Structures are given as structure tokens and as C-alpha cells.
UniProtKB/TrEMBL annotation:
This is Adenylyltransferase/cytidyltransferase family protein. It comes from Paralabilibaculum antarcticum. Residues 2-109 form the HIT domain. One of its GO terms (molecular function) is nucleotidyltransferase activity. NCBIfam families: cyt_tran_rel. It holds the Pfam family HIT.
């Protein structure tokens, strides 16, 4: 699973930059100076299977990486290795190449494999935690992560999103303004039937696709039950955002709560009632 692969590569502590469809991580094993992992956020094990949006974004990500590593470390070349044998999810090992040794922060880094192919099983450049953080911050700056920090790393919000409307959009847009990564839980058809006694107008697959297409949303997950703490723990959520009509009624969670003004003039119920009158 993707989550297992991310854990192996020390995510989220190794994160350098997050895109809508890709993550850039700093390798714990610095095969050469500035070695990275570029991994797709989609659960795909074949390169041709990733979405068109992810494929299009890849050109932006690789440009950022190549220009950023060149500025940071003056590398001579960059190798992209897509192996996917032990870890099957779509990812690249990004290995900067150097003709001569490079000294940075009083440590010399060598490219022992130049001019041949790099060997990922050999680590000639061990780094301690202090050096790792130094390299991580340097690459973050060069890849454009030096913009003002947002209040939260990861925010979660959820809903049925049956007949998507302006009130939903308000919550998503305002949530994204506060965080780097917005995760949205879309209630499954089964959960809606269980909690409301009737099926949604729009089936889950279509509702999830609508939400995932919104530019403010970074990740969509199915909301199968009302256990919010489980989501907080599994996805390392810093805050949950909801409309202020939930104040005092939301289930207790260990993360912070963010309440946005409720949009009283519009709701899925109002839309459904209006459609009944039109018929």
C-alpha cells in the first residue's frame, strides 16, 4: 500500500514539498548529495495508470526539482530511477550526479559511481539528523517552500456533498487557506443511508470525483463511519474544519477545531426541496 511505502521513506518527516498529485521527499540514505524520492500520491503500480492530471503536473514538479537541485548543490546531472520492484507504487529515486566531490556544511559528499549508474544499495554519504535537516531546509527553499507558513499542515473536513453548492465551496476554500494539505472525507452511500434513512441523489463515486476536481482539495477519502478520531490518528490531522452550526455538537477529537460561518441561505436540503416544488 502507498501508506506503507511512504512510511518506509520516512514521510512526513522527510517531506520537502507537496504538490496536488506528487510528494517530494529527502532520502534518508544520501546516495549522492541531495538525493530525493518523488512519489505519486495515487494508489497506482503502473506508470501509465496515473491520472492525466498527475502526468501533466509531473512536468512542473521535475522542472522545480531540476532547477532547485542545481541552485542548491550545483550538480552536473540528475538521474531518475523508476524501479518499483520492492516498493510497487509509482515513484522515482532522484539522484543528483557530481563529477567531483562537494563539501557543504563541513561535510564532503562524493559520487562514487560517476560516470556510471548509481547503486542504491551503497550509501557512501551517511548523514546525521542535524545534517539531514540542514539539507531538507536547503532543498525546501530552492523548491519554493520558503513562502509564508500556513497555520496547519493538514486539515480534515467531511460531508455528504450531495448536490454540491456554494456553502460547500466556502468551507473547502477557507480550509485550504489555513493549511498546506486539505483532506476531504466524502460520506459513502451506505453511511448516508444509515444516518439519514435514504440514499443520496448523487452516488458516492460521482460525489468523490466532483470534490477531487476542486483546486482547493489535495486528497479525497471515503467517510465510512462517524469515527473522526480514527481519521485524525491515521492521517495525522492537525485540525478539523466545519460550519459553526456544529459548534458544541461535534464529536470530541484530539486535534484543534476550526469553525467557519454557516451559509444559511443555501443547503442540500433547501436545493432538494426547491427541486420538488419545480416538478
Amino acid at each position: 500500500m502507498l501508506r506503507d511505502t511512504l512510511t518506509k521513506f520516512a514521510y512526513p518527516s522527510s517531506l520537502v514539498k507537496e504538490y496536488k498529485h506528487w510528494l517530494v521527499l529527502l532520502r534518508k540514505e544520501q546516495i549522492t548529495l541531495g538525493s530525493l524520492i518523488l512519489i505519486c500520491k495515487e494508489e497506482k503500480t503502473n506508470f501509465h495508470s496515473i491520472s492525466q492530471d498527475a502526468m501533466m503536473e509531473l512536468s512542473i514538479v521535475t522542472k522545480d526539482i531540476e532547477l532547485g537541485l542545481s541552485r542548491a548543490f550545483k550538480c552536473d546531472k540528475i538521474n531518475y530511477l523508476m524501479l518499483m520492484m520492492v516498493d510497487p507504487e509509482v515513484h522515482f529515486h532522484v539522484i543528483p550526479r557530481y563529477e567531483i566531490p562537494v563539501t557543504i556544511n563541513n561535510q564532503e559528499f562524493i559520487d562514487a559511481f560517476w560516470p556510471g549508474p548509481a547503486n542504491l544499495a551503497v550509501n557512501n554519504n551517511p548523514v546525521n539528523s542535524e545534517m539531514f535537516r540542514f539539507l531538507q531546509e536547503k532543498v525546501q527553499i530552492e523548491l519554493g517552500e520558503s513562502s509564508p507558513e500556513k497555520k496547519y499542515k493538514r486539515i480534515y473536513t467531511s460531508g455528504c456533498f450531495d448536490l454540491f453548492h456554494y456553502g460547500h465551496l466556502n468551507i473547502l476554500e477557507n480550509s485550504k487557506k489555513l493549511c498546506e494539505h486539505l483532506i476531504v472525507g466524502v460520506s459513502t452511500d451506505e453511511l448516508i443511508l444509515e444516518s439519514k434513512g435514504k440514499k443520496p441523489v448523487i452516488p458516492f463515486e460521482e460525489r468523490a470525483k466532483i470534490i477531487s476536481s476542486i483546486k482547493f482539495v489535495d486528497e479525497v477519502i471515503p467517510q465510512k463511519d462517524k469515527n473522526k478520531q480514527k481519521v485524525v490518528d491515521e492521517y495525522q490531522i492537525d485540525a478539523i474544519s466545519v460550519g459553526d452550526d456544529w459548534r458544541g455538537k461535534y464529536p470530541p477529537v484530539s486535534c484543534e477545531m476550526v469553525y467557519f460561518p454557516y451559509t444559511p441561505s443555501v443547503s442540500s436540503t433547501i436545493l432538494k426541496d426547491t427541486l420538488k416544488l419545480i416538478k
